[in-house]
Amino acid sequence: MADATVEVNHDVCIVSGMCASLAPEIFDIDDDGLKLEVLKPTLPPELVDKARGAEACCPVEAIKVTTP
Ligand code: SF4
To answer: Among candidates 1, 2, 3, 6, which has minimal Cα distance to 65?
Structure first.
């Protein structure tokens, strides 16, 4: 079975930091505060709900969680 994945559209992300606050295991803002990094583009099953929570809260809908 394929894994769940999470992607961020960096063209629309405004680096609000919301997702990194909600799910620091998955998202991180770089030290300059200028770029969001996805730490876990392939999601372990226990982090799927957290990723979906971040997806729902992103102010610009830049996060896309895909589950198999
Ligand atoms: S919540 Fe959305 S806009 Fe904010 S840093 Fe995460 S992906 Fe970017």
So the answer is: 6
